[in-house]
Write a structure and sequence with these properties.
alpha/beta; Rossmann fold; 6-stranded parallel beta sheet; binds nicotinamide-adenine-dinucleotide; binds zinc ion
Length: about 350
């Protein structure tokens, strides 16, 4: 599958003629969003699409994790069918990861797949969930358990939309960016630690730089291993094994994705000292920094439940839970970790 085209820069979302070129031969598209994002950016993007000569249907999904369910996909697929969309039409997803995951999944399954464009409006979306073609919904048994690899034809990352992000969503995006630093690029990690206050306050120039670097790591790695079968893509899951488990166990939508990843990275740092030779001093320094970021503390969670959730992780092979650990900052490695050690770390973090 070809790499998605990337359109970056302030105002990119409004340059629809560029990112819809060759997308939908029928000239018909469906613009999918949710109410919070629609209120701010919906009509602008809709006008831009019309200005590019397209016939535009619109559809709103429920906000947050509720978008990622069969109950919200079915009405979307029905709207696409009743709106007369064929394989020569396209879907445009405008929103955070919940919208792009769910709408991308609808694009993957409608008539066995139509092209789509992702316009991520959260920082997390611009450097992670809006890129790479993993689409999907949640099942009662856990997050992201049904889905498809379906890469967008184009990804549109507009820095302007990040200006209205609530502080918590900003921190969530920064959490994911810290992952790229710790796992792949020590320089990015140091830069983020040094300029943290400015990043947390929403400095536009620095934010754009972090998003650009995070997104290029993601694109580079996905290009090597689109279907997560060869190895490299698995490394993107640093901080995600326990992170996903926490996100599910806390209850859908309680912890933001990047907040859960911050907890997950703290667990992975501890395990890295034991299992991957990370120096205790480096682990402690990184952990102190992560511990200082204001994220909710998932209290009243049973550590045994967390361990059970990690076993549901799609990365489990032959019963052993595989963790991405660090030999050093920027040097990831995959290691199986015994259940008892995961439990000990979970107990320590949740106490
Ligand atoms: N597909 C992937 O590779 C991948 C990777 C990581 C995470 N995810 C998924 O992404 C989802 C989380 O996505 P998210 O963190 O982007 O959250 P989200 O989509 O739930 O959005 C969070 C909130 O931010 C608001 N919002 C969005 N953009 C805004 C803006 N520009 N200004 C003001 N408010 C805005 C929304 O209305 C919503 O209330 C999770 O379901 C997670 O599983 C997917
Ligand atoms: Zn993530």
């Amino acid at each position: 599958m070809n790499q998605e085209k990337l359109f970056v820069g302030p105002g990119a979302r409004l340059r629809a003629r560029a990112w819809t070129r060759g997308l939908a031969p029928s000239g018909r598209v469906i613009l999918v969003s949710e109410s919070g994002v629609w209120r701010r950016f919906g009509s602008g993007v809709q006008r831009a699409l019309k200005g590019a000569g397209l016939h535009v249907l619109t559809h709103l999904l429920p906000s947050g994790e509720a978008a990622k369910s069969w109950d919200s996909i079915e009405p979307l697929l029905t709207a696409m069918l009743e709106g007369g969309l064929g394989r020569d039409a396209a879907l445009i997803a405008l929103g955070g990861g919940s919208v792009t995951d769910a709408a991308g999944f609808a694009a993957a399954v409608f008539l066995r797949g139509i092209p789509w464009v992702s316009i991520p409006t959260t920082m997390l979306g611009q450097l992670d969930s809006g890129l790479g073609g993993k689409t999907g919904i949640n099942l009662a048994g856990g997050k992201n358990l049904a889905g498809a690899f379906h890469r967008p034809a184009a990804v549109v990352c507009d820095g302007d939309v990040l200006k209205t992000l609530p502080p918590r969503e900003r921190v969530s995006g920064l959490g994911e960016a810290l992952k790229y630093g710790l796992a792949f690029e020590a320089k990015l990690w140091s830069l983020m630690v040094r300029d943290w206050d400015k990043l947390a306050a929403g400095d536009a120039r620095l934010t754009a730089e972090i998003v650009r670097r995070g997104a290029s790591w993601k694109r580079k790695i996905v290009a090597q291993d689109l279907y997560e079968t060869k190895g490299p893509r698995e490394l993107l899951n640093f901080g995600h094994t326990l992170g996903h488990a926490l996100e599910s166990a806390a209850g859908l939508g309680v912890l933001r994705h990047g907040e859960a990843v911050i907890w997950g990275m703290r667990a992975a740092l501890r395990l890295s000292v034991k299992r991957a030779g990370l120096s205790p001093a480096n682990a402690l320094e990184a952990d102190r920094f992560l511990a200082g970021i204001p994220v909710p503390v998932p209290r009243r969670l049973d550590p045994h439940r967390l361990v059970a959730e990690t076993k549901r992780d799609k990365k489990v092979r032959a019963g052993a839970v595989r963790f991405i650990l660090l030999r050093a900052v920027g040097r990831p490695v995959v290691k199986p970790v015994p259940e008892a050690e995961i439990l000990a770390v979970a107990q320590e973090l949740l106490s």
